[in-house]
Each structure stands twice: as C-alpha cells, then as structure tokens.
Amino acid sequence: MARKRTIEDLTTEELRHLLMEKRRAERQGRLDAYRRTGRVIQVEPRPETAPLEGLRTEILEAPSPAPRSPRRVWMDRLLFVVEFAAVIGLVIVLVNTFYGLQVINAEAASALIQPTLTPTPLIRAVVLPSGHTPPNSPGGSQFNEAEIPEHLRPMVQSLANLPLPTASPEQAQRIQIAAIRVDAPIVMGDLPEQLKKGVGQSLINPVNPGQKGNLVLSAHNDIYGQIFRDLDQLKAGDEIVIYTNQRSYVYTVRETLIVQPDQVEVMAPTRDAVVTLISCYPYMVDKQRIIVVADLRDER
Description:
Number of helices: 5
Shape: rod-shaped
Structural class: alpha+beta
Strand content: 15-25%
Low-confidence stretches: 118-123
Order of helices and strands: HHHHEEHEEEEEE
CATH class of the domain at 145-150 and 169-299: Mainly Beta
CATH superfamily of the domain at 145-150 and 169-299: Sortase
Helix content: 25-40%
CATH architecture of the domain at 145-150 and 169-299: Beta Barrel
C-alpha cells in the first residue's frame, strides 16, 4: 500500500499548482454566491488558459495577401510617377515665384531711383553770341542782325530782357589763358552791351565753374579789347583757369571747332563739367564762329 504523501513530499511546482487551484476554488465560490444574490450576470465562461501553441498556429496559418495583378502594379507605378511629377512641378512653381518676386522688387527699386536729368534751357539760343560786323565795314562794327532769321528776331530781343542772376561767390569772375596771354573779367550775360565790358557768360546755361554742365563764355576777337583774338592758337592740353571769389578751376583744352552762327548745339547742356569759349571768326571777317571746348581737370 502506497504511503500517503505529505506537504513536505510535494515539489515546488505541485505546491504552486495546489495554491492556484485553491485560489480558483475560492474565486469560483465567491462568483457562485454573487450569482445567487443577483449581483453578477452569467456570461460565457472564459477559457482558463490560452493555448500558446494554438495561438502560434493560428498566426502561422493566417492567410497571406493575394498577389497583385500586373495591371495593378503598373497603375501603382503610374500613380507614383504622377505624384513625383506633381511634387517637382510644385517645387519649380515655388522657385519661379521666388525669383519672380525678386525681379519685381528689383524693378520697383530701380523705378524709385530717379535718373540724373540734363537740364534743358527754357529759352534756346537762336544764334551764337558775339556776332557783329567787322570794324572796317561801312558804318563800323555793329550787332549783326542779319545772322538772325527775321521771324526769330523778337525771340532774340526777349533774351535781352532776361534778368541777371543774383551775384554769388560761386559765379565766374575772371578768366586767364596763359598760352594766348588772356586775363580778363567775366560778366553775366553775352549780349552786345555785356560783351563791351569783358568776357560774357551765357544766361541760357546758368552753370558755375566746377559744376557739371556747359559753362559758355564768349568775347570779341577784333573789337572791345580783342580778348579772344587768338583762340585759334590754342592746342589740346592748354590750360584755361577760371576764378570765382573763393577758388580757381583749371580746364584743359580738348578741341577747337569752326561752325556757322546758327549751330547753337555747341551751347547745349553737358553731363560733364566743361567750358566752351566762343568768338567770331575769321579775324576782321566775322562770318563764322570759333569754338574751343575744355574739360575740368582740377580746382585750386
């Protein structure tokens, strides 16, 4: 007859199993008591243990997805290409928009910058100054009105009524040209009355020495001191010094021209600082004009 086993004879695993059975029995007793009193509702009994091997078997036996058809594969690829092209197109649009905004901003900024305009005189000269008849002509030297078309003579007369600008320290006062021994005062205006007093500065271009623009000076060559008699002897590089009350400005001769009395474009405004000297030509004939153009070199 087999000996009855005691607790000391049981293994650890058996003791754990007995403890679990005891706890399960106690829990089942409490549930039965709750059901008798109506405190719980009968539900489908839950399996005590989930067979791990069965679960693993179910997972392993899960049906694999059905293979995609070639048409489906090509459709997926086509959709990928379309999506990729859409992204690239969006990037291109954003880049073009960015650069477009930069161009617009640059154009707007450049539009705000006002260009430097060359001043245009309100009244244009009809004929170059210093015109007169030779001193050996009948009646002597007089203002040569014949050089001016008859219908423009009232306009020339209106120039005589222009008010003289208020004197300032920056206005030209004197001119010296060492190469032809010229040292003469400069007066405002270039009409016959002003040219009797010295070298006349044109009122059409109100430019002071040293400033950007065309400083136009004229004088006679065979009357009233013959100040500009030897302009034709000037060579490129010769110095012309013009004085104000504050400083002096040195111009160097660039070129000499012989023009007709009505070629008034030599008096037009310029972007650079230049001085234009005008006198009648030839000596004692006075049917043309000699023009000397010089560029500003420095100031003293």
